[in-house]
Amino acid sequence: MAGGTSDQSPGRKWMKKGFIYGPDGSLAWARHSALTPTPFLLSESVLRVYAGFRDERGVSRIGYVDVSPEDPSVVLGVSKEPALDVGEPGTFDDNGVILGDVLRVRDRLLMYYVGFQKVEQVKFLAFTGLAVSDDQGGSFRRVSRTPVLDRTDSELYIRAAHSVIHENGMFRVWMAGGSGWEWIGGKPFPRYDIRYLESEDGIHFNREAQLSLGCQGDEYRIGRPRVRRLGTRYSMYYTWGDTHGRYLPGYAESTDGLAWVRKDEHVGIGPSSEGWDSVHLCYPAPLEYRGKTYMFYNGNDMGRAGFGYAVLET
User: Who has the most CB within 10 Å: 21, 66, 102, 135?
Assistant: First the structure.
């Protein structure tokens, strides 16, 4: 990744550049949606955006869209097969997988992903798995059929890693964790907040997570943290949801990645007046490239149409 633009200014503003991609329904495993778009600079000529494509039952599999890093509106290619399929029947990820994060550690590409499993007494379980790529990101194989972040007493239903930074020999992880449900209109929605964990090997983590950001006011969930280090500070974009049906981006800063100051008023982007991102704007994921900063994000209905992008104004 070359260059970089700090987005720590209170006057930040993101300029929306438009919709990029959503499945056209021609593939059985990718009928609609491109959930949690996660950009990864594969090379100086290819920016790969991993995302969760859903089948007609709503089950997500991880695929990718290759775009030009000079102009992400230019689609170079789309995966014809899942880069990571669902797990074996009965495993923690047998009913869908989404990103997660992708990072290069030495000569390996690691993918931390969230696996979903349907159970009888609650809506679902969501825990974190790890997969590695032997073909430079075209496909991934599981390190284990069990989660690397499984349930704990304080995170019974959700332990979903969404940002992983390998820093000073330590894997630093920011995740969504939760043990409850919010009933809205007679339907259960997961309750969770943003928490922090560490690991020396990226596989075995300390059991107890530290709270990074909790819900405020009418919020019942805050998650999908995307953390970057910018000089001496850390930047986090995330998504919060409240009981009024809002599902919107937020922003926070930290000096150490542990204690965070929430600054949602400085997020610099929100829903459009009409179109695919006019109701919701969620799962923002920034990436720097040669002095420019992009943000990839989902719109209405948690990305049912697909994803678009914006550019940070400087």
Answer: 102
Burial class (CB in 10 A: 0-12, 13-18, 19+), 214: exposed
Q: Round to whole Å and give the CA distance between 24 and 11.
A: 37
d(CA 253, CA 234): 6
How many Å from the N-terminal Cα to the C-terminal Cα in the chain? 19
Pair of tokens at residue 175: 């995740």
CA dist 49 → 44, 74, 147 (Å): 14, 12, 24
Q: What residue ranges of the chain have pLDDT lower than 50?
A: 1-6, 8-9
pTM: 0.94
Residue written as token pair 């919010």:
182
Please give the sequence-ordered ranges of beta strands (E in DSSP) within 74-218, or none if there are none. Answer: 75-78, 97-105, 108-117, 125-133, 141-142, 158-167, 170-184, 187-199, 210-213
What pLDDT, on a 0 to 100 scale, did the predictor assign at position 127?
A: 98
The pLDDT assigned to 207 comes to 77
